[in-house]
Amino acid sequence: MKICKVCVQNELNDPDFQLDENGVCNYCIDVESEFKRIENYPSQFQSIIEKIKSDGKGKQYDCVMGMSGGVDSSYVAHLAKMHGLRPLVVHFDNGWNTELAVDNINKIITKNGFDLHTLVVDWDEFRDIQKAFIRSDVVDIEMVSDHAITATMLKISKKFGIKYALSGSNVATESGMPISWSWRKADWMNIKDIHSKFGEVKIKTFPRYSSFDILFNRLKGDVGIESITILDYIDFKKLEAIEVLKREYDWREYPGKHYESFFTKFYQAYILPEKFKVDKRISHYSALIRNGEMTREDVLVKLEEPLYTVQELRNDIEYFCKKIGFDKSEFEEIMKRSPKPHDFYKSDEKYFRVLAKYWKIIKKIPILNRIGLRGANVKRVKNGS
Hints:
By secondary structure, the chain is mainly alpha-helical. The protein has two domains: about 40-275 and about 310-340, HUPs (Rossmann fold), CATH 3.40.50; about 350-380, no CATH class. The protein has 19 helices and five strands. The protein has a five-stranded parallel beta sheet. α4 (about 100-110) links the parallel β2 and β3 (about 115-120). It is globular and about 55 Å long. The two termini are about 20 Å apart.
């Protein structure tokens, strides 16, 4: 098996994986470029803070931020308080929160004195969409939650006239994820078609938006909300952030990245590796290697550790099937089936393939530049996903 000599990314179930003549993978090379792109961000940190404050004068809140109770969102809240920002904190409760996550969220919110808006989904409706995705055999089942979170943030920001969203996404600890392991979250057409084929409950309240909604709003002059990846503006170290959170908030650590949600834990520790042969720890740990927080040798040892003990897995499968409403035999049959690509179903990706084909011409059209059409989606289809 081909494996990077710098990190631990490898060719297993990753069609985009490449090594250069020195044995360095394309992810390390790409991330190096990303670090260069943001190398001047720290010098702009204070001006970004002041701009958020200035544009938020006279408003109840000057920014909005999502809160899962995980490391990144918790530390973003810590930074916001430190620098005098007034965020409206939004939590999307999809029914899968762990008690630890709820406790961590409460500690962060209470000590910082922030307002918390919690959207509790219609459980029967939401789990029906999740079940449909599992039955469809596509890889990005978490797309359902991610889509709803973004839709909720867009709605809330519009209601309160908020111009900025503080995001926990960052180059330091979240870069280098193979693009074939996920799907574009704004693809409402994909969600809708998958649910129409495998769902049983009518969608009435599920938060939604689409790439076309954003495009049409910008054509009308509504630029929407600007996402600020605030952790890119500091020398972010995940392990140091964890210690700060423990010390300042009595925050408690999770056993894995994004394990604040039972569903995410089960998805990453069982569904992905068992059905899709994807172990996200490889990318998570590789990011920490590049960020100087773990050694490659230590990571290789960590990867030898099982994702589940036999008894814990047995318990979690039973709990998962009971909560989401699967007969265990149906779930076992689904897990044995071959994966399907997202664009096996209806998707707006085909429109972005047209954009990719004619991008050199399209990007010269002034109106499209003004509405903010960028190359992110074009890059995706060029990479063959």
